Every structure is written in C-alpha cells, then in structure tokens.
C-alpha cells in the first residue's frame, strides 16, 4: 500500500493508497484504543477537507489501527484535564454556556467534515466501537463491520446526551426508531449481527482483514466510475435524506443540468458498447 506524501504531516492519521483513486485513512492511536484527543478531531477535519478536493482521490476508506478497536470514543480523561468542559469559578452561567457551546459546535463540525467530504467514505468497524465511533461512522456513507465489532451509544453512561452527531444521524441511518431510542437511552452494547439486522451496517465479515478487503474492493469499484456521477449521487442522496421529494427533484434537475454537460455519460455508454474500460478525467 503506497503512502501518500501529501498527507505525511498528520500525527494521528495514517493515509495511504491501496489502489488507483482510493485513499485509506487509518485512525492511528492503537495503544490508546484509538480514543480521540482534541488534537485528533481537529486533525480529522483537516484530513477530510484535504481529501474532499484532492483530484487524485475518488473514494475514502476509514478504519482504526490495531486489532482491538476502531475507536473507544473520546479520551474522557484528557478532555477533563484540558479544562474545556469545566466551568471556571466565578464565571456566570450565560458566559460559561457560550464557551461550552462553541467547543461543542467545533467538535460537531470536525465530525461533519467527514459527511461533507465530496468523496464517498466507506467505514470499516471492528472491535470496540463506542461513543464517538457511532458519531463518526454515522457521518460516513457505507459501513462495513467485522464480526467482532461491539457497538454502544455510550454517552448516557458518562452522564450526558450524545452531542456530536449520533442523535441527529442514527435515526436516519436505520429502520427502527424504537431500536434507536433503546440503544441510545440504555447505552447497552450490540454486536455486528444486530447492527446488520437494523441496517446500521451493510456487510459483516469474519475478521477485520476480511472487512478491510471487502471495503477496498468496493472502493476500487466505485473509484472506477465517473467522479462526476459518483460525487453527484452522494450529494443528491444526502439532500434527499434531509428534504422533501419535491425539493430533491428540483435540486436534482438543477444539479444535472450542469453535470450532464460533462463527457462522462458519453464515455460510459461507449465503453459499454465497445466493451472497454472507461477512463474519466480527474475532478
């Protein structure tokens, strides 16, 4: 797997290319179960903002380093020590609330950067996948799990409501509102089989290696398609999730009135007729 030199400056994320137009982003703090420090989620935003506009990347695979965890969530001990979630003595309620709101919003924006990435993001979940793991994976487009994955919306167990994206995105990602409330209110663990049964993940594999292999194959398949078509499809599906059918149809018409002027459709159709592999210009 070739390392990508333009991404070599990142401390907590290892970024490589397993194939043409595919980037593999690995959360790289395995000795701490890939738990997130503030520096990590700020770095995550920079990684995905760079990937979003990189013409050499068409699909992103996101995974966690090591055998034990995708991520154990927020490093709560580090967060409590840095003072960001503490109320300073003598500060009135309103000012303390404004400070904390800015902190929460910035954290939310860093996770939302994954969802806003123009390229499809495939998440590979394994081992411990709790708290922030749910926030983060809900912001991706496709979720694939290893059989050993153990999930939990863990926040109520540490005395808070999840506030970085799970409560906004998970109800739209699965088929049962009752199940969402059950796992969010109880913080109970659920396994990969249960995640598959409600549609939280679309594939389950025997091991992390198998799950990664499946993700890479899928990423390569998607990367072989027109980037105009793929990125447009992601944009329109996300818009449809958050808007009415009528609004989405209008948005799609405007979007494709521009996108259909590209030569990509002609190239794709000709390659099908001629039984050749289509090549598309970088976007």
TrEMBL record:
Gene3D superfamilies, sorted:
2-enoyl-CoA Hydratase, Chain A, domain 1, Lyase 2-enoyl-coa Hydratase, Chain A, domain 2
Q: Which domain of life is it from?
A: Eukaryota
The family database entries (InterPro entries) matched by this protein are listed as: ClpP/crotonase-like_dom_sf, Ech1-like, Enoyl-CoA_hydra/iso, Enoyl-CoA_hydra_C
Q: Where in the cell is it found?
A: Peroxisome
Q: In its keyword annotation, does this UniProt entry include Calcium?
A: no
The cross-references to CDD domains, in alphabetical order and at most eight, read: crotonase-like
Question: Which Gene Ontology terms of cellular component type are present?
Answer: mitochondrion; peroxisome
Keywords from UniProt, A to Z, are: Acetylation, Fatty acid metabolism, Isomerase, Lipid metabolism, Peroxisome
Could you tell me the Gene Ontology terms of the biological process aspect for this record? Answer: fatty acid metabolic process
Q: Which family does it belong to?
A: Belongs to the enoyl-CoA hydratase/isomerase family.
Q: Could you tell me what this protein is called?
A: ClpP/crotonase-like domain-containing protein
Q: Which organism is it from?
A: Immersiella caudata
